[in-house]
Design brief:
The chain is an alpha+beta fold and 923 residues long. Helix content is 55%, strand content 11%. The strands form 4 sheets. It has a 5-stranded mixed beta sheet with strand order 14-15-13-12-16, covered by helices on one side. Strands 3-2-1-4 form a 4-stranded mixed beta sheet, with helices on both faces. Strands 8-9-11-10 form a 4-stranded antiparallel beta sheet. Helix 9 runs antiparallel to helix 10. The longest helix has 30 residues. The N terminus is likely disordered.
């Protein structure tokens, strides 16, 4: 991956071969400016012409046309300078050639111009003057020009040690100068890479590819993919061609079919996918007016419209577009990886051949484990056609051996799968047994299931899974397509058996304990694999998925009770998380209703583990310790009830005494015992049930700061293994304080991911926030909140005006159109789930200062906020508030709802409609 070069850097590179001396400018200023103006016009005309062709023509032709337009532009600039030299520059001494993207004729509209100038060992004054003037003109054209002025010997040295130089010089085209010198150069570079430095070149190329894939999260399915350098992007295709050249001396894609590495149909499919990426890249460049390779949400909508994708009854236009994108990216990634692997297998040296013979071990039934893969040497397609059950048997052996299936064996399975009798395969008792064995293999399920999916075996056996193929989830919550997300859940069930993973935090250790107690591991993994099977089939994916799972269970002959449990788990797979994040889990009635719904300990354990794995597989940022703590508390309380225990007193008196003893150990001895006892005595039960000891200690310190005269005190902590930071706050429990804190954080560009608010018996607000910077990163070291805290202190004490804070909060940008079409903003009003509070669930799209504006609207309506639960979910946030009026009564009158909705509209600038289908206890 070549780093972008600034024009100044390019200039230094260009002049690196020229000895410093005073030389004259070859073109007079007026002629030079006229040339620049003319070239800018030619460049813009070429881009316009290519964009007119992009929607309808083959992209290879468009890229070739633009590359040749750049050739003509470069030739015109060179020839102008040569003419100005008046015959004093010998074209047999110099070569001007296009390299890199220019050389392979795959330029996009704002691609770099890669140019190589070959010179003899020494230059005349006139030649040096020509080159210097030429570079200045290219620089002033404001092109990202990667230039080099070198001798052939310098190029050969560069190609022996620098991968970027080697790959760029593989593909060159002569623009001006000596054809014989250019041919000599091309042959010597080819010899260097194909013969002398082949092993180094291929090894470094593989290392670079692996590193690049790691940088992009080792997955195609990112929210805003990079069409050039991302996995399944154009660079994967280029890397494969370079490997092909190193192996064969020929980088033509048709060689792959000639060598029987890919079929002719696969080669055609690969080129179609590359062409799709080229078209997208041209659109990205055109809309940005510069080199731009990241397919952002905004560009996805624009390009979907330009490429005439339409909305259907199930998906938005941009979702259909991204479905196509992921399909093509997957084709590029899989086919190029297969080609690279096969090329490596076909050219082992003598030592490797000897190693291969003795460094393999038998896995039984003619299979071997070699170099960490399962191989099956010396068989043809008839091997599986004669006994179709062998397909699942091979995958089961790979699972047992804990190795992936080799690429050559996967190719054999791929060719066989379309020829198998699908009904007979699905009804086979032997296939079912091996499938369950794969799902039951604790710690090694994801890899064999991924191999099943990549070869078509999974969709042959469970055809319902094919509806998830490259199915995009167009939100900032999910990072992966539905199929990739479902398979990634199995990674986290595998990780529950890995000591390294599970010893990171006590929370994960508790998950591991639950995993050890699970009796039917295959049931968890099958539920994870199918939990989103209802997506892509309309609304209500949990119920649809449960029905699909029941059909699968019946078809493959699972016991009735297991089929019912599978149906239950998928239908209820959001229940634990939603209850933990949207309800007061310290309310015994909430826990009691949840426990009754789950019914037994095994189902609760399955649901707990399933929720954990599902949440971890959404994105790297989705799991937080705060969510984990709430889930674990709900699980513990429900398990206690299911096993016959009582939760009416969640925190006994002796536990309060234990907390008091812990605080005494940490607090300075000169602090009077009475003060510590008062602090612990005044802590609310809900706080004691959920707060970690370090939070209690922090709130103690902050409460002491309030005693010294401050109106508000807080501490910001950087959380480990997370992009979130924790903010602990203490302030007088006055109406509106929580809202002011939210506004203060928004004014400092901090995004609130979670919040818990508590009120002590002596009138102290003790709040906990999980925050990040707006760019999604952890709050940086040294981030200072003192100024905004002083402002809050003045507002709370009445010395400063609230308007000072409000004016510093950024205004809302427009709501994202695609997401509002899918999920319009709404509010659920629930007057039955809590005995003492009205529960407001606000479902809308995350924006700067959202929580401030929501809470400010409630304060304006004279509502008292007793509990706030904040969560990011698909397409939007779900902010839950337990509220009463100032007389501690529920809001249950239509006029109160209307007043509240009007206040929300004035604060947010858009309407929140009441979701009456899900609201309860309202008139």
């Amino acid at each position: 991956m070549r780093p972008a070069r600034s024009s100044k850097t390019a200039m230094r590179m260009a002049l690196s071969g020229i000895q410093p001396r005073v030389v004259e400018e070859l073109l007079p200023p007026q002629q030079r400016q006229a040339l620049i103006t003319e070239c800018l016009g030619l460049l813009e005309a070429a881009r316009k012409t290519c964009m007119e062709r992009t929607p309808i023509d083959r992209q290879f032709d468009v890229s070739r046309q633009f590359s040749r337009a750049m050739d003509a532009l470069a030739l015109h600039i060179v020839q102008t300078h040569v003419d100005a030299a008046k015959g004093e520059c010998d074209p047999e001494r110099i070569v001007v050639a296009m390299i890199g993207g220019n050389g392979r004729e795959m330029l996009s509209l704002y691609s770099d111009m890669d140019m190589l100038i070959l010179t003899p060992d020494s230059l005349t004054d006139k030649e040096e003057s020509l080159l210097k003037s030429l570079m200045h003109v290219l620089w002033d054209l404001k092109l990202e020009v990667g230039q080099a002025v070198r001798t052939i010997q310098q190029c050969l040295q560069q190609a022996s040690s620098d991968l970027d130089s080697a790959t760029s010089m593989l593909e060159t085209r002569l623009i001006w100068g000596s054809a014989a010198m250019h041919l000599d150069f091309s042959q010597r570079i080819g010899q260097k890479i194909h013969k002398e430095k082949r092993d180094w070149f291929q090894r470094t190329l593989n290392d670079r590819r692996n590193l690049r894939h790691q940088q992009f999260g080792s997955t195609i399915y990112t929210l805003e993919p990079n069409v050039k350098d991302g996995i399944g992007g154009l660079r994967d295709y280029h890397s494969m061609l370079w490997q092909l050249y190193a192996a064969t001396g020929d980088a033509s894609p048709s060689r792959l079919a000639e060598m029987d590495i890919l079929t002719a149909e696969e080669c055609d499919g690969l080129l179609d996918s590359v062409e799709f990426m080229l078209k997208i890249r041209n659109y990205l460049h055109f809309f940005s007016g510069r080199k731009s390779d990241v397919l952002t949400f905004e560009r996805q909508t624009q390009i979907a419209r330009e490429m005439d994708y339409q909305r259907d009854e199930l998906r938005l236009a941009e979702e259909n577009f991204m479905h196509g994108f992921y399909h093509h990216a997957r084709e590029i990634q899989q086919l190029t990886q297969r080609a690279v692997n096969e090329l490596a297998v076909r050219q082992p040296n003598a030592l490797n051949k000897l190693y291969w013979k003795f460094a393999r071990r038998s896995a039984g039934r003619g299979l071997y484990v070699h170099s960490g893969e399962l191989i099956l040497p010396g068989v043809t397609d008839d091997y599986f056609l004669a006994q179709p059950d062998r397909v699942m048997d091979v995958l089961s052996i790979a699972s047992r051996e804990r190795v992936p299936v080799s690429e050559s064996l996967k190719n054999l399975i791929r060719r066989t799968v379309p020829m198998l009798d699908a009904e007979a395969f699905r009804s086979s008792a032997g296939v079912r047994t091996e499938f369950i064995n794969i799902l039951n293999n604790r710690g090694w399920t994801m890899q064999p299931v991924r191999d099943m999916y990549d070869t078509g075996v999974l969709t042959l056996y469970i055809p319902e899974f094919s509806a998830l193929y490259c199915l995009p989830q167009m939100d900032r919550y999910h990072h992966y397509t539905a199929d990739e997300h479902s398979i990634r859940t199995l990674r986290h069930s595998d990780n529950l058996w890995s000591r390294e993973v599970n010893q990171k935090t006590p929370l994960i250790g508790r998950m591991r304990e639950a995993a050890r107690g699970l009796k039917r591991w295959h049931l968890l993994n099958l539920a994870l694999l199918l939990h989103d099977a209802g997506k892509g089939r309309g609304s209500g994916h949990a119920l649809r998925g449960a029905q699909i799972a029941q059909r699968v269970a019946d078809r493959i002959g699972m016991p009735t009770e297991e089929g019912e449990t599978l149906h239950f788990l998928i239908q209820k797979h959001h229940r634990l998380l939603h209850t933990a994040l949207r309800r007061d889990i310290n309310d015994p009635e909430v826990v009691r209703r949840f426990a009754e719904e789950i019914g037994d300990a095994e189902r609760l354990r399955l649901l707990h583990l399933m929720t954990y794995c599902d949440l971890r597989a959404v994105s790297p940022e989705t799991w937080t310790d705060w969510k984990g703590v709430l889930m674990q508390q709900l699980y513990d309380h429900a398990m206690l009830l299911i096993k016959g225990g009582s939760i009416d007193r969640l925190f006994e008196a002796q536990d309060r005494q234990e907390l008091l003893a812990q605080l005494r150990e940490q607090i300075e001895p000169e602090i009077k015992d009475r003060l510590i006892e008062q602090f612990v005595h005044n802590l609310p039960q809900s706080y004691l049930a959920s707060a970690r000891f370090e939070h209690v200690l922090a709130h103690w310190r902050l409460s002491r700061e309030l005693d010294s005269g401050k109106s508000i005190a807080w501490e910001l902590h950087r959380a480990e293994n997370s992009n979130l930071s924790e903010l602990m706050v203490c302030a007088p429990d006055n109406p509106g304080v929580f809202s002011l804190i939210c506004g203060a954080l928004a004014s400092k560009k901090l995004n609130i991911h979670a919040a818990q608010i508590f009120s002590s018996r002596d009138g102290l607000a003790m709040d906990f926030f999980q925050v990040s910077h707006w760019n999604g990163e952890q709050v940086p070291e040294g981030f200072n909140l003192d100024r905004v805290r002083n402002l809050l202190d003045g507002i709370i004490s009445g010395k400063r005006d609230e308007a000072e804070l409000i004016s510093s909060i950024p205004s809302f940008p427009p709501l994202p159109a695609a997401n509002t079409r899918r999920k319009p903003p709404a509010i659920i009003i629930n007057n039955t789930a809590s005995a003492n509070h009205t529960i407001l669930e606000v479902k809308t799209h995350d924006q700067p200062g959202l929580l401030f504006h929501l809470t400010r609207a409630m304060i304006r309506c004279k509502l008292d906020i007793h509990l706030a639960l904040i969560a990011n979910e698909a397409y939007r946030v779900v902010d839950v508030f337990y509220v009463t009026d100032l007389e501690s009564k529920k809001i249950d009158k239509p006029e109160e709802y209307e007043t509240l909705l009007q206040a929300f509209h004035e604060e947010l600038g858009y309407t929140l409609e009441i979701d009456r289908k899900n609201s309860t206890g309202i008139q």
